[in-house]
Amino acid sequence: MPRTAIAALGTYVPERVVTNDQMSGWMDTTDEWIQQRTGIRERRWVEEGVGASDLAFEATKRALAAASWEAGDIDAIVYATLSPDATFPGDACFLQALLGLPGVPALDIRNQCSGFIYGLSVADAWIRCGQYKRILLVGAEVHSTGLDKSNRGRDVTVIFGDGAGVALLEATEDPNRGVLSTHLHADGRYARDLWCEGPGSKLDPRVDGALIPTARYFPKMEGNKVFKHAVVRMPQAVREALKQNGLKVSDIKLLVNHQANLRITEAVQKAMELSDEQMYSNIQKYGNTTAASIPLCLAEAVVARNVQRGDLIALTAFGAGFTWASALLRW
Ligand code: COA
């Protein structure tokens, strides 16, 4: 049975840098508060009129160049986002059109911060069963247009950034490369602890003047609850993956966890007794980019940590739903 290897990664973030100091001009917050609580120094936000699929398109062009593939080499698109260009259709169709690939299947994944690993799991199953050989896996977000920039939303708004990361996945027969396993979980009892209610089908009409003062169209988060679950679930998911493959923490060359908050990453590192060399963070520059955060971080981390062919990489994520997931792969 073939395995799923990463042929190349590609990333793209908008040019516009938004610093913590800029944010303190719009709401009661400070650079010190944001850095202390989250580690974030700045994030990228799009200019008006740019959607998640535009960021995904730029990231995909870079990945195609790195892999020396043509767009036409892609057999299927799997696209994770919670901030699609439109309510429907999904972003995978918009990206497919930008890439000029009519007829190629385009699947959207709605699993928030765990979306990239959920997508990897689906793509891996397709490749292993032989349905497709070359898959474009995308994580892309534009949060900035959907955030509450008043004091009311300051706990959420300071955290999130825009960006895109993609992986070109290919079937390989090489036993020393590729995805070993993926592990997916969810607990919908916490669905309303990190969510954006509207516009949604339970609201009739979905959008009208009465919705505006309620702010139900902005994301809401029980930050403490999210934090407490994240620091338990991510280590748990990685241990589950190691156990299934008969591997240990010391076998991991690099762990890339969803960049939710630097304090969460530090807690994951401590809980798993991982060294600084086994970890990598870039939330300082980009904030939390949800489905894009793992590929954005992985692309930098493999270079910074000098990852070599065959090295073991662990991925893990936690986010709204609640959902959480892990994957083990050999580079
Ligand atoms: N700037 C300044 N003060 C802020 C603020 C901001 N941007 N946001 C909230 N505060 C205030 C709160 O109003 C509160 O004030 P009070 O003590 O007067 O009530 C105080 O800071 C402490 O708030 P609290 O929510 O207890 O802080 P915290 O230490 O839990 O940190 C988060 C808040 C959001 C940073 C933290 O809970 C967190 O990171 N959670 C996980 C978030 C996450 O990762 N989400 C994405 C998951 S994928």
The CATH homologous superfamily of the largest domain is named Thiolase/Chalcone synthase
Radius of gyration (CA) equals: 19 Å
Query: Secondary-structure element order, as H and E?
Result: EEHHEHEHEHEHEEEHEHEHHHEE
Largest sheet: 5 strands, mixed
Task: Look at the structure and give the mean pLDDT.
Answer: 97
CATH architecture of the largest domain: 3-Layer(aba) Sandwich
What's the β-strand tally?
13
Class of secondary structure makeup: alpha/beta
- Poorly predicted regions: none
Question: What is the domain tally?
Answer: 2
Identify the CATH class of the largest domain.
Answer: Alpha Beta
Strand order of the largest sheet: 1-7-6-4-5
> What fold name goes in the CATH topology slot of the largest domain?
Peroxisomal Thiolase, Chain A, domain 1
Helix content: 25-40%
Number of DSSP helical runs: 11
> Strand portion, in percent?
15-25%
- Compute the separation of the termini in Å: 18 Å
